[in-house]
Amino acid sequence: MYVARPELVYHQLATYTDTAHAWMLASELAGAYSLEPDGAEGMHGRAALTSPELLRSFFNRSRATCHKARGRRILDHFVGGARSPKEAQIAAMLALPRRLGGYGIRGVVLNQQIDLSPEACAVAKRGYVEGDVFIESLRHNIEYDSDEHHLGNEAHDRDTRKANALRMMGVELTSLSKGQLHSWLEFDILATAIDQELPFHKRGATPAIRAKQYALWHQLLFDDTDTR
Predict the structure, then answer these.
(1) What is the strand order of the sheet 172-177 is part of?
(2) What pLDDT shows up at residue 40?
(3) Which end of the chain is more exposed for a tag (fewer CB within 10 A), N or C?
(4) What is the pTM of this model?
(5) What count of other Cβ atoms lies within 10 Å of the Cβ of residue 92?
(6) C-alpha–C-alpha distance, residues 185 and 85, integer Å
(7) Strands 140-145, 172-177: parallel, antiparallel or unpaired by DSSP?
(8) Separation between Cα atoms, residue 25 and residue 114, nearest integer Å
(9) Residues 55-77 pLDDT 10s
């Protein structure tokens, strides 16, 4: 039996697709989830099949036709390690450069382990926490709350402890609900506010860039890439 390696599978599937679908294909291979209609929330957890480094290495070592393939253009900015499609979508919009429809925010890491001080440990009741979408260059963490109105008391208490511990560590927090993510106006306001914290991008986005950002947002969330 011969089985194609994940990097080759990505190249074949992403050759003729757009930026949004290429990112989501890479995320399913280099993330900790797999889409499964019968699974919880339409997916189930599993170990990553590849990594951003292996994907880049595959394209860099391949023939020129492969090196220039459309799927290659996202890999210099690709962020692996997503635990859900929503995390992957948020990372794509933040990390991709403006020319590809993103906000060009550098240093985006998914599920980053953040070690806590003794005082923060006492608050969080654990030695470390993980940031959903952590921007290392800004020490800014985005927490995605898909079911914020359905949390039990225990889950709500855990999330509150985590937020307080992160603030004690000097990490700025932004909470992003599913409703905010699915509203272009609200998501753009939040993403632009984070973008303005960066030392670059001094010039505002042009109308052409704004159109690309909206198009990427729409493709990621509503053009057959959206899941729960």
Answers:
(1) 108-115, 128-135, 140-145, 172-177
(2) 59
(3) N
(4) 0.90
(5) 30
(6) 21
(7) parallel
(8) 28
(9) 999 988 876 556 556 788 899 99
